[in-house]
Amino acid sequence: MSHRIPTQSYHPQFQFLEGLIKKTQGVDVSFFEAPDDPSCLPINSSFFEAVTNWKGQDFSHAKWMIDKPEIKAGENQRDLLATIFYLVNCCQEWNAKESDKDEFGRFRFERSL
Questions:
Q1: What 3 state SS string does 6-17 have?
Q2: CA terminus-to-terminus distance, the chain
Q3: Which of 17, 7, 20 is nearest to 46 (CA)?
Q4: Cβ neighbours around 9 below 10 Å, total
């Protein structure tokens, strides 16, 4: 199964997602670049740019998952790839503030989705 995406700039992240989907769902999936194709999967390029340059970035739920646990790519478009990547990799724990951690340095349950 192939899916079109607007860019391959985030190739390592998409390779990870291809492998994850194959392993967990048993589905061979591949993504290929089609920048001007209106049927492309919606991609939140800001999110993948932040992942690429992750040091010092804010990965809090408040920033990426505004009203429900999904990342948007535009007003009414869900970015399923970014949402999967965020949840599977526990991105909310990346660069977490000290106030988000307990006395042992673990991410607080109350701060989780």
A1: CCCCCHHHHHHH
A2: 31
A3: 7
A4: 14
The residue assigned the tokens 């998409």 is 14
Q: CA 33, CA 43: separation in Å to the nearest integer?
A: 12
Min mean pLDDT across 2-6, 20-24, 42-46 is at 2-6
Cα 40-93-98 angle, rounded to 5 deg: 145
Which long-range contacts link 73-76 to residues 24+ away (Cβ below 8 Å)?
73/42, 73/43, 73/44, 74/42
31-54 confidence digits (pLDDT tens) = 776 667 777 788 888 899 899 888
The string of DSSP letters for 58-75 reads: ---HHHH-SSSSS-BSSS
Which of 87, 9, 86 is CA-nearest to residue 45?
Answer: 9
* Dihedral angle, C-alpha 88, 72, 113, 25, nearest 10 °: -30
DSSP letter (8 states) at residue 102: -
Predicted structure pTM score: 0.81
